Amino acid sequence: xxxxxxxxxxxxxxxxxxxxxxxxHHAGIDFVILESRISAVLDQGASLVLSSPSLRIMHQLxxxxxxxxxxxxxxxxxxxxRDGDQFVNSQAIFQVLKKNHGTAPVAFHRAQxxxxxxxxxxxxAKDRYLLNKKVDSIESDETGVRVTxxxxxxxxGSIVIGADGVHSKTRRIMREQALEEDPQCDWDAAVPFPxxxxxxxxxxxxxxxxxxxxxxxxxxxxxxxxxxxxxGWIFLYERLPEPTTSRVDYTEGDRQAFAAKFADFPVxxxxxxKDVYATRLTDGMANLEEGILxxxxxxxxxxxxxxxxxxxxxxxxGLNNGIQDVVALCNGLHEILETRTENDLPDLVILSKxxxxxxxxxxxxxxxxxxxxxxxxxxxx
Length: 381
Hints:
The chain is an alpha+beta fold. It contains 11 helices and 21 strands.
């Protein structure tokens, strides 16, 4: 039995943090989720695609049936040039995936996926999901950690999992503490992930058949289209003149001007970007950071998902790797906790080894998926 006095503080309540909530609850490990936003469900972002291994994990967590009611299984892929000339038109890849794994990848509207993951939490776990909790500081010693939020509230625990995304506050604090202890250590940069592409996305009422996936490729510009159960999504990519680590807040005017550049790009055989953009329900735009950290942990802090590895979305591997991170971490925690008592909690040496094993286990698949994402982005544009 896992000691009740061992507690995990998860910073970030997005899809990776919510997966951690489910996994920790099932493992019998106490936890709290600190989410900075005022609502668990905000209609931001576009689509998220869960691969077959991630869907298997969702089955183990008891939420797959609910997820399949809102997702659209991918069935058909097309690739074409900017002029509309097709060079791929196939169902084969998704048929092979379904034959080998029982299901092809499934596309979800991001807000619906998050809502389902949140609403399917047992009441006891949902009570541990706290909103409007912006992390201000993390203190740690030989016995535990204390997280202080900007509202003055504090939370004590045994470890911190930073699942707070590409602009992770947890990662910044971890870096500061590591350099404070050893100013000469070879740590990752404060802003570790450069961007070579910017991307605009929008969602709209679904057009075409559910499960359609299309990409349009051109010099320095490309598009992707997915059709889910109820909504469709497009992603418009443009290569930047040079890599940058600057964070840009694009305005509505920026988005409209950017969409106009892609207006006549084909989305399907019959539709162009301007046709679906006119019916958009939500949209957004950002630079697309890429990279993998050298250091995923320090002391009692460990990172997961986009906080420690960030991919372009072309291959749909970002969230799937975050889910795998959570599984590896929870399995590692359960292994070191299941035979311990309240008076025999794992010390920093044991935790550090478990964190190192976690990074070693995940490094090869993360690099493989990162390389594939990088390759697809550059092949498309």
